[in-house]
Each structure stands twice: as C-alpha cells, then as structure tokens.
Amino acid sequence: MIDPSRGRPVLERFFAGAFDGVLITDFWPAYHAFATERQCCLVYLLWELEKVDEDNTSTEWRAFAKPLRRLLRDGIRLRKRADLLPQRYASRIVRIDRRLVALSEATYADADAARLARGSAGECSWLSVAFIRPRP
Description:
- α3 runs antiparallel to α4 and α4 packs across α5 (111-123).
- By secondary structure, the protein is mainly α.
- The longest helix has 21 residues, at 59-79.
- The protein has helices at residues 8-14, 42-55, 59-79, 86-105, 111-123, and strands at residues 23-25, 38-40.
- The protein has one domain (1-136).
C-alpha cells in the first residue's frame, strides 16, 4: 500500500485486519493509536541521538545521552553473545531493563532528554528494542 500520508487514517486502513505482531516504529504519534506491542527501531533511535547531538550541547542532554548510548551498546553486545546460557542472558536483560527504567523515570528540564525519556516509557518503548527481546 502506497500513500503520501503517514497519518492515522492510512494506518487504520493498512491495519484493518488483525495485526498480531510487534509494530516496529519511529516516534510518529499516529502509531500510538494501535493497541499492539510497539518496538522502537534501533537504527532510528541511534540516528535521533546523533541528530540531537549536532544541535544540543547542554550538560543535561550529555548526561542523559551518554548512559543511553552505553546501554544500547551493552544491549547490542549482549544480543551477539551466543555463548550465554538462557538464564544468564535473561538476568542480563533484567539489568538492562533496570537501567532503562531509571533513565526513563528521571525528570529532565532538557526538552530532547525529556522527549526521548518519554519514548522509553511507552510512546515507542525501548524496553522492547530488538536486542532486549528474548532469543528464539
């Protein structure tokens, strides 16, 4: 389906049937109307971090972005660890989850940090980015 709009009506037509999967999205609000599990696109998130870095040099942004980047790197490395037993993998996921929740629950005066922290709390949940999902 090709449509010049990314609005909610287009998405409603596209998802008119039952959608039983994980919707991988950017931060576009039209996706929030769907009561399906959403996963933030990791590439989009990394791109967004780089884009904000170009214009935002505030101390608070840097204090937010640095641990988020470290968390994403740790998650990517974890996902590549085929040698870990399922229990060990699951325990490391729990630790990453805790770090992510701590980042998302903090209060930020910086608009970019606040916006991305809200995303981790539910708009485009980072708690289910690809590397955090259990391995098949």
